[in-house]
Write a structure and sequence with these properties.
The complex is a heterodimer of chains A (340) and B (515). Chain A is mostly helical. Chain A has 15 helices and two strands. Classes of the chains: A mainly alpha (340), B alpha/beta (515).
Chain lengths: 340, 515
C-alpha cells in the first residue's frame, strides 16, 4: 500500500517559489531608482518619511502577530499604543528624561498586554471583548487625565550611523534616524529569527496552532500566552512612545488615530511574519508619506482623498485582494486544560 | 503469533503496575479499584466499551489526571504523576486517539517540540533534528520523511509520527489509545507489525480498543474493563470474540445481525456526479454517483475523512452542492433546504449527534418533535401544543427504550447511547421513505448498538431505502445489502454483500483500484 506523502509541487528554489515577491521587489527598486534619478531630493525625503511613518505601524503589527502566533487575538493594540503614548509623554513632561519616558511607555504597554492576557487566558473571556475593553479604557483614561498646554523638554533627534549615512539614498533613509526607528528595524529581524529559528518560536507557534499538542509534551500553554501577549503589549507601548517622543513630540487626545487597527491589516498583509509585516508597513507608511509630499508639490487632489489612502488599502487587504493567508489555527480560542 | 497460553512476557520483569486506581468524576465513578500489571516487551490489550473507564485509566497513567486513590509503580518505583511531562520523564509515552500534532509543522518539528535540543540563543538545529528522526525511524522500522508537513500526510503516517515522538523522548512504555479507529484494515496490520518490532526491542505496549478481532490477533494478554472495574484478565488463546464480548458487556451478546434477504423495489435516492466543497473550499466530494432502492441497505464504507461527512451534509441540505444532481423519488433536491428534504419523508441520523442531532439544552420531549413541531397536533396556528408534545415524548421514550429520568430532562445530560436513541426515535417514528444514517453507532454502548441495528433492519424490511455511512467495517458487513466503497470523494466500487469480503473492501478503502 502507498503510504508515502504526496509531495508538494513547489520548487525548493527560493527565487522561483517567491517569484511574484521577487518581481514586485524588482519593480519597486526600479521605480525608486527612476524617481531618484529624476528628483533625488524629493525621493529621499519621501522614503525617509515612509520609514518613519511605518515605524509605529510595524511595531503595532509585530504586537499583533506575536499575540496571534501564540493564539490570542489582540484588537486592543490601538489602546495599548495610546496608553504607551500618553504615559511616555507625561513622563517626559514631569521627569524630563526621554529614555526614562521611553521605558515608562514600554512599561505601560506591558501592563496593558498583561491585562489582555489576564482577561483572555485566565478569565477565558472572549478575546474581541477583551481587546475592546482595552481600547475603551485607554481612550477614557488618557482623555480624562490629559491636561492641554503641557510642554516637554523636546524629542528624540536623528543621529547618523557613521560612514553608513554617507551612502547616497540608502544612507539618509536608513542610517540617519532617531533611536526608536532604529530599534523597530532591529526588532523586526530579531523577532523573525526568534519566531522561526528558536525553541521559543517553535513553542509559541505550536501553542497558537494546536495548544493541546503543546500541552501534552509538557509546554505550559498559559505561561507561553501570558509572556507573548505581554511582550506584544511592550511593542505596542513602544509604538505609542514613538508617537509622543519621536514622531509628533507631543500628545493629543486619540492621537493614535486608528494606527492600532491598521497594524492588524498590516499583520494580515504580511502573512503573520515579521518581515512580511515590515514590507506591508512600508506600503502603508508610503501612503502617509506621499500625502505631505503631494501637498508640497501642489498636486491638486483633495487632501481628504489622499488622507483616506491607508484606509482604502486596509479594506483591500482585509477583503482578501492580496492573496489568501492562513491565520494561526487556535487564535481566539481560550485553551481549556483537561484533567484535574 | 499470540497462540501461546503462557506468554514469555509473563516472566519478564514488571515495568508498570497500577494498584487500586480509583477516580471519581461528578456523578460517575470512572475507575473503581483497578489493578494493572505490564511486563517488559508485552502487548497488553485494554478492552472495554465506551465509558468503561479505559481512557480515564490511561489518562491517569500518562499524568493527565491524578487518581483519587491508588498507587502507580513504574520500574519498581512508586511515582506520583502531576503532568504528562512527569510521565514522559519516566518513559511513559501516550499516543492519543486524536493526534496531538501541529498540522502546519514538519514531522521533525513535531517530534522535537517540547524536548528541543538547542544551541546558543535557543537556536534549533533543524538538520540535526531531521537526522535524529531518520535514525529513530530506521532503528524501529518506521519509515518517514522528517521534512514532510503533517497536514500532507495520511493518518497512518501521522500515527507513526506520534510513535516516533514518544520514542524520541525515550519512552519504553507506549500507550496507544484506540489506534486503529482511523486506519484501514491494511494500515492496522502494518501498525500491528510495527508494534511487534517495538516489543522485540524491549518496548512495552498498552493497546486500548473496543474491537474484538484486533485484540485476538495482536495482544499477549487482555484486561477487560466494565463500568470502571477490571472484570477479568484473559489470554487470546483461551478466548473467542463471543467470550470477550460477554465479558465486556456483562451478558450474552448477539454479534451477528439477524436479517432476511432484501427485497429491493424501485429507486428512491439517485445521485449523479455530486460535487461538494469543505470549509476550506477544497473539493472533497468529486463526482459521486449512487442509487438506493426501497427495501435495501446501501452501506457506504470508507476511512474517515474521504468526504463522507460533506457528502451526507450535502444530501440532507446542510451544505451547498457545487455540481451534479440529487433526486429523491422524482423530485430534484440538489439545492433544497433541509426542511424541504425532511418533508419528503427523509430521516437523517447525523454523524455528530451533539451538533446536528439534538439541541442540548432542550428537553427530551422537545427534541423529539424538532422535525414536526410545526405540524398538527404539535402546534396549532403557530402556538405549540404542550400536551401533545409531552404525550408524544412519553410514548417514544417507552417505545424506543430511552433511559431518561423524565421527558423534561435536558438532552445534553443523557448518555451517548440514549442521545442516539432519542434521535432514532424522532426520525423513525413517522412514515419514512429514505433513511440516511451517518455513523449511527459511533461511541455508544453495545446494547444501544444492537437496538439501533435492529431498528435499521426493521425499517428496511418495511420498505424504506436506507443509506448507511460507516467507518466501522464490521457494521457495514453485518448490515449492508450492497456495499459502496468511498475513497477520495467518490465511490470506487459497489459490491453486492456476497462479494464484499473484508479483504476486498479493505483494499478498496485504501484506494487500490480493481480492474
Amino acid at each position: 500500500m502507498e503510504l508515502t506523502a504526496v509531495p508538494r509541487k513547489i520548487s525548493t528554489n527560493w527565487f522561483i517559489k517567491n517569484r511574484w515577491l521577487v518581481l514586485i521587489f524588482i519593480i519597486i527598486i526600479g521605480s525608486i531608482a527612476y524617481a531618484y534619478a529624476v528628483n533625488g531630493r524629493v525621493t529621499t525625503a519621501v522614503l525617509a518619511s515612509t520609514l518613519r511613518q511605518s515605524t509605529p505601524l510595524v511595531l503595532g503589527a509585530l504586537c499583533g502577530l506575536i499575540c496571534e502566533r501564540s493564539g490570542v487575538i489582540n484588537i486592543g493594540i490601538e489602546g495599548q499604543m495610546l496608553m504607551g503614548a500618553f504615559l511616555a509623554f507625561m513622563a517626559n513632561v514631569y521627569l524630563g528624561n526621554l529614555w526614562v519616558a521611553l521605558a515608562i511607555g514600554i512599561l505601560a504597554g506591558a501592563l496593558m498586554g498583561l491585562l489582555l492576557a489576564f482577561m483572555s487566558v485566565t478569565l477565558k473571556m472572549d478575546q474581541i471583548i477583551g481587546g475592546t475593553v482595552i481600547n475603551i479604557l485607554a481612550i477614557g483614561l488618557t482623555g480624562y487625565f490629559y491636561i492641554s498646554g503641557l510642554t516637554t523638554q523636546g524629542k528624540f533627534q536623528p543621529f547618523a550611523l557613521g560612514p553608513l549615512a554617507e551612502i547616497p539614498l540608502i544612507g539618509p533613509v536608513f542610517f540617519k534616524n532617531p533611536p526608536i526607528t532604529y530599534m523597530a528595524i532591529v526588532i523586526v529581524f530579531v523577532l523573525h529569527y526568534v519566531l522561526f529559528y528558536t525553541r521559543w518560536g517553535l513553542r509559541t507557534r505550536a501553542v497558537g496552532e494546536h495548544p493541546s499538542a503543546a500541552d501534552t509534551v509538557g509546554i505550559n500553554v498559559y505561561k507561553m500566552r501570558y509572556i507573548n501577549v505581554t511582550i506584544g503589549g511592550m511593542l505596542a507601548g513602544l509604538a505609542g512612545a514613538f508617537l509622543t517622543l519621536e514622531g509628533v513630540g507631543t500628545f493629543e487626545r486619540g492621537m493614535t488615530n486608528g494606527r492600532g487597527f491598521l497594524a492588524l491589516a498590516i499583520m494580515i498583509f504580511g502573512k503573520w511574519t515579521p518581515l512580511g509585516a515590515w514590507g506591508a508597513a512600508f506600503l502603508f507608511g508610503f501612503t502617509y508619506a506621499i500625502q505631505t509630499q503631494l501637498q508640497f508639490m501642489g498636486v491638486n487632489l483633495p487632501p481628504q482623498f489622499i488622507g483616506s489612502l491607508p484606509y482604502i488599502l486596509t479594506i483591500l487587504v482585509l477583503a482578501g485582494f492580496v492573496g489568501r493567508s492562513r491565520p494561526p489555527a487556535a487564535e481566539g480560542k481560550p485553551y481549556e486544560k483537561e484533567g484535574g | 503469533m499470540s497462540d501461546r497460553l503462557s506468554p514469555i512476557a509473563d516472566d519478564a520483569p514488571i515495568v508498570l503496575e497500577a494498584k487500586g486506581i480509583t477516580k471519581q468524576f461528578p456523578g460517575v465513578l470512572a475507575n473503581d479499584q483497578v489493578d494493572l500489571v505490564l511486563h517488559r516487551g508485552e502487548i497488553l490489550a485494554m478492552l472495554g466499551e465506551n465509558g468503561a473507564g479505559k481512557s480515564t485509566l490511561m489518562s491517569i497513567l500518562s499524568g493527565l489526571y491524578t487518581p483519587d486513590a491508588g498507587e502507580i509503580w513504574i520500574k519498581g518505583e512508586h511515582v506520583t504523576l502531576h503532568s504528562p511531562g512527569d510521565a514522559i520523564i519516566r518513559g511513559v509515552g501516550m499516543v492519543y486517539q486524536h493526534f496531538q500534532l501541529v498540522p502546519v509543522m514538519t514531522v521533525a518539528e513535531n517530534v522535537i517540540l517540547g524536548a528541543e535540543v538547542v544551541k546558543a540563543g535557543g537556536y534549533i538545529d533543524i538538520r540535526e533534528a531531521n537526522r535524529r528522526v531518520r535514525e529513530l525511524s530506521k532503528q524501529y522500522g518506521l519509515e518517514i520523511d522528517p521534512t514532510a508537513v503533517i497536514e500532507d500526510l495520511p493518518v497512518g503516517l501521522q500515527q507513526r509520527v506520534e510513535i516516533i515522538k514518544a520514542l524520541y523522548r525515550q519512552a519504553d512504555i507506549l500507550i496507544l489509545d484506540e489506534p486503529t479507529a482511523v486506519l484501514t484494515p491494511q494500515e492496522s496490520n502494518e501498525l500491528f507489525q510495527i508494534m511487534h518490532q517495538l516489543t522485540a526491542q524491549g518496548v512495552s505496549i498498552i493497546f486500548i480498543t473496543h474491537k474484538l478481532k484486533e485484540v485476538l490477533t495482536v495482544a499477549d494478554r487482555i484486561v477487560v474493563l466494565r463500568g470502571g472495574k477490571a472484570v477479568g484478565t484473559v489470554y487470546p488463546a483461551e478466548s473467542t470474540e463471543a467470550s470477550l464480548a460477554e465479558l465486556m458487556v456483562g451478558r450474552k451478546v448477539i454479534l451477528q445481525v439477524d436479517k432476511k434477504r432484501a427485497q429491493p423495489g424501485k429507486t428512491v435516492l439517485k445521485i449523479e456526479n455530486l460535487e461538494v466543497l469543505d470549509e476550506r473550499k477544497h473539493k472533497v466530494v468529486k463526482g459521486l454517483s449512487l442509487d438506493v432502492r426501497e427495501g435495501e441497505i446501501l452501506a457506504v464504507a470508507g476511512v474517515q475523512g474521504n468526504g463522507q461527512r460533506e457528502f451526507v451534509e450535502a444530501l440532507t441540505g446542510l451544505r451547498p452542492v457545487v455540481g451534479g444532481h440529487i433526486f429523491i423519488e422524482d423530485e430534484e433536491t440538489t439545492h433544497s433546504i433541509p426542511r424541504k428534504i425532511s418533508e419528503l419523508d427523509v430521516a437523517h441520523i447525523p454523524e455528530d449527534r451533539e451538533k446536528h442531532g439534538l439541541v442540548m439544552p432542550y428537553s427530551v420531549a422537545d427534541n423529539l418533535v424538532l422535525n414536526r413541531y410545526f405540524h398538527e397536533p404539535f402546534s396549532h396556528r403557530a402556538v405549540l401544543n404542550r400536551d401533545a408534545i409531552a404525550e408524544n415524548g412519553r410514548n417514544l421514550v417507552k417505545e424506543f427504550d430511552v433511559r431518561t429520568p423524565s421527558i423534561e430532562t435536558h438532552a445534553g445530560s443523557l448518555s451517548g447511547g440514549n442521545k442516539q436513541k432519542v434521535i432514532v426515535a424522532r426520525e423513525l417514528s413517522r412514515p419514512v421513505k429514505l433513511l440516511v444514517a451517518n455513523q449511527p453507532t459511533r461511541g455508544i454502548d453495545v446494547g444501544s448498538i444492537e437496538f439501533i441495528h435492529n431498528q435499521i433492519v426493521a425499517q428496511r424490511d418495511a420498505g424504506v431505502a436506507v443509506l448507511l455511512v460507516s467507518a466501522e467495517l464490521d457494521e457495514v458487513l453485518s448490515l449492508a445489502d450492497r456495499v459502496a466503497v468511498m475513497f477520495d470523494g467518490h465511490i470506487v466500487k459497489t459490491l453486492p454483500i456476497e462479494e464484499a469480503t473484508r479483504e476486498r473492501v479493505g483494499l478498496l478503502m485504501a484506494g487500490s483500484e480493481e480492474e
